[in-house]
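#struct-help
A.M.: can someone run this one for me? Single chain, 237 residues.
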Amino acid sequence: MPQRTAIFKDLGKLDYKTAWDLQESLLQQGVAVKQSPASAPDGPAENAVVQNYLLFVEHPPVYTLGKSGKMEHVLISDEERDAKGIEFFKINRGGDITFHGPEQIVGYPIIDLEQFYTDIGRYLRELEEVIIRTLADYGIEAGRSPGETGVWIEPGVPGKERKICAMGVRCSRWITMHGFAFNINTDLNYFNYIVPCGIANKAVTSLQQELGRAVRLEDVKEKLKHHFAEVFGVEWE
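D.P.: on it. Structure tokens below:
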């Protein structure tokens, strides 16, 4: 079996709509490859294989509401939100409402799951595994909360459960988009104005809060990139 490859791109600081449009464009490019004839008169097309990507980005403050989300989980008025400079989008991923903002690493894998396995549940568990291994590098034991996608610290300790990474994905023709939001030195006050992921009475945390010190985003990105390649079995182009 040929080695699966992926292109890594760090988009730096980028507004949400621009990044969303880029994801949609890359996904549609992949769908077009799948819809094109498998062969042409002069033989198989060179681009017959869908290109896989992993994008990292840091967004200005924004709330995004997934297609199964509820508006009542937004606890702030439009006027208050505008005054605080927070954007808002209803989007086409699964899940409820979450926050993206400065000092948070957002990861968008646009990958063709038919090159890996056709199982969305497994895909989400492996995305979680990337974050869990990265946190272990910092001496933090993290895990999963049954029935609640994302990565949690002390998920089995009532009253102490706290989410450090939210996840929500979309999949079309087995090509993924959207992904994870990993709180590094994130200002957690932004989560006070929503019911994060639609889960009430459970806290949100960050790597900074857990370690008691700020962490360089570039260091975390390198660890995430390494563990993503390890878990998904890809080589970077």
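A.M.: thanks! The mean pLDDT is 92.
D.P.: also worth noting: Residues 55 and 108 are 5 Å apart (CA to CA).
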